[in-house]
Amino acid sequence: MKQNYDVRDFFTYLGYPSGDQPYWSENLRSLSVYCRGDADNLRELLEPTPFELADDRFVVQIADFANATPGSFYDSGVVIPVRYGDHTGVNYYFEYEDQPWSVAFGREVWGYPKHYGEIQLTDSTSRVAGSVRRAGEQIFGISMEPQDGYSNEAWADMALYPHLQVHALPEANGPGFKTFEIVSRDTSKDFVLRDKWFGPARLELGSALGVNGVQLEVVEVLGGEYSVGDYACTVENGISTVIDDLLADRPEGQPLRASTAGE
């Protein structure tokens, strides 16, 4: 081993910043389509996770981080409201980005379940549309038509923060996990909204949006929202907080079980 080696130098090799580094993205464009799902279907999707369903509505999103200070990328995904003990927030259940470094960054540092996808987002005064594809197959497509006077009453009460994610690292030589933390992030406190539009929306879901044979189902499309604003991941609010560690103080050989947080 090298003498006086600083393990933090390895981030240079990985090609993404550490989890305590702030970043910004001005003029962030974001298209969100709000849906009502089937509660039983959503619970079944959440079964392999430590989270409980908090609402039968969910959101399908695409965001353009073209001006992000670490580098340009697109983000997209399906966001489901969840509870963990006394904590209520949302979980990025499916997520796709178009840059390898940003996929690795979000997945390895904060536990976002990111996969690679080819993402587009186009806008005009009459229509906003986006799609996520991989290997020639559509994962999902969303669109909306901005409409004066269109009401967002059907989803105005939904809180899309904080994000509650599982930050997990599998064992290199065993069947379990070396790390299994529940983390919370809330960058909304530093977001500066510039413009927002509402309107009727459309949604197409591909077969990739499923886990263990369970496909995401849509009961009703409630509407769409297109916004432009300045995003900030600050030291004060962008860095994640570990709210539970399911492996902390666990005797060797004891099976992993749910934490008693909030019980």
Please describe what this structure looks like.
With 263 residues, the protein is mainly β. Helix content is 9%, strand content 48%. The chain is built from three helices and 17 strands. Strands 1, 2, 3, 4, 5, 6, 12 and 16 form an eight-stranded mixed β-sheet that branches. It is globular and about 65 Å long. 35% of the residues are buried. Mean pLDDT is 93; it is low at 258-263.
Shape type: globular
> Quaternary state, please?
single chain
Largest sheet: 8 strands, mixed
Could you tell me the strand content as a percent range? Answer: over 45%
Total of DSSP H or I helical runs spanning 4+ residues: 3
Number of strands: 17
Distance between the termini: 45 Å
**Element-level helix/strand string:** HEHEEEEHEEEEEEEEEEEE
Overall radius of gyration: 19 Å
Any low-confidence stretches, pLDDT <50, length ≥5?
A: 258-263
Overall SS class: mainly beta
* Average pLDDT over all residues: 93
| Percent helix range | under 10%
